[in-house]
Amino acid sequence: MSQLKSFELPVEQVDMTGSCWLWIGSRDKNGYGLFRVNGVTMRVNRLAWISYNGEIPEGKHVLHTCDTPACVKKEHLFLGTHQENMTDMVQKSRAYRPIGEINPKAKLTQKKADEIRELATQGATQTELSTMFQVSRGAVYHILAGRTWA
Description:
By secondary structure, the protein is an alpha+beta fold. The protein folds into 2 domains: 11-91, Homing Intron 3 (I-Ppo) Encoded Endonuclease, Chain A, CATH 3.90.75.20; 100-144, no CATH class. 32% of the residues lie in helices and 13% in strands. It has 5 helices and 6 strands. It has helices at residues 44-53, 82-91, 110-121, 126-133, 137-144, and strands at 14-15, 22-23, 34-37, 40-43, 61-64, 77-80. A two-stranded antiparallel sheet has the order 1-2. The chain is elongated, with a radius of gyration of 23 Å.
């Protein structure tokens, strides 16, 4: 929303009693504060950034050092790209990546992956294995390369 060059954060909707300043108005399902400006609902962390610093450059996201979605404290906000946001999430162990059999989309089990490795040592091709186990040839390749189902 590049037309919004300035914004005054409504402080009456912010709890400033803790180390994080928490938005007490509307929030989305992930806990991010929401506020309607010029007929458009925006995340409050973005509006807080605009209030403190002015426009947000295109392609930038407003990230939290505190990892508290409802926080609008100036010192807890910083700009980053989508990739930097994802890297920050992984580094802080906030990414949920179910691997192996606990992944609800897994087509294989550890036992089947081990069987794929065994059959490959006996001469089965990746194409034969992918057909046999009904997975992509790439999935078989990654199993044999030790990238998945290690």
